[in-house]
Design brief:
Strands 1, 4, 5, 6 and 7 form a 5-stranded antiparallel β-sheet that branches. Strands 3-2-8 form a 3-stranded antiparallel β-sheet, with no helix packed on it. Helix content is 13%, strand content 42%. The chain is mainly beta. It has 2 domains: 1-31; 37-135, no CATH class. Pfam families: DUF2155.
C-alpha cells in the first residue's frame, strides 16, 4: 500500500472514531474542538512586492483595513491554538485590489493559515500576502 493510501485509511479511521472522546488522543492533528481556538484582536501579515523584492510585515486590527501596494486588506477574525497543541494561526481575510481609476476587484476572500501559506495563497502578479501570526495587542516588538 502506498503512503497516500495508508494516510487515507488512517484519516478514515480517525473520522470513524471521532464519535469517541478518545479520538482527540488518537488523531490530534485532524480533530480540533471549536473551543480550543483562541480569539485575538490583531493579525500579523507579511507582504511581498514581487517587482522590487521588498518584504513588509504589518499588523491589522480586527475589522480595520490595511493597505499594501494596491491591496486593501480587512481581517474579520484571527485565531490560534494554545501552546499545548501544535502551532497554528488562522485568519479570515478579505483582500481587494484597488488600482487607480479602476474598479476594485476581489483578490482573496477566505481562511488563511500561517503553517500552510500555499494552501490558500493570494494569486497576484505584483503582490503576495500571507499570515504570520495572531496577537492580542498591537504592541510593536
Amino acid at each position: 500500500m502506498s503512503k497516500s493510501g495508508l494516510l487515507r485509511v488512517l484519516a478514515c479511521v480517525c473520522v470513524v472514531t471521532s464519535v469517541n472522546l478518545q479520538s482527540i488522543a488518537v488523531c490530534p492533528h485532524i480533530i480540533r474542538l471549536k473551543n480550543e481556538w483562541r480569539q485575538h484582536n490583531v493579525a500579523v501579515l507579511r507582504g511581498l512586492d514581487k517587482v522590487t523584492g521588498r518584504v513588509s510585515t504589518f499588523k491589522v486590527m480586527l475589522g480595520n483595513v490595511a493597505y499594501f501596494g494596491t491591496f486593501k486588506i480587512r481581517v474579520d477574525t484571527c485565531q490560534d491554538l494554545p501552546p499545548t497543541l501544535p502551532p497554528e494561526s488562522a485568519a479570515f481575510l478579505h483582500i481587494e485590489d484597488q488600482l487607480p481609476d479602476e474598479e476594485t476587484h476581489d483578490v482573496f476572500n477566505g481562511w488563511m493559515f500561517a503553517s500552510s501559506v500555499s494552501l490558500h495563497a493570494v494569486e497576484h502578479s505584483v503582490y503576495s500576502v500571507w499570515l504570520m501570526s495572531c496577537r492580542s495587542d498591537f504592541i510593536d516588538d
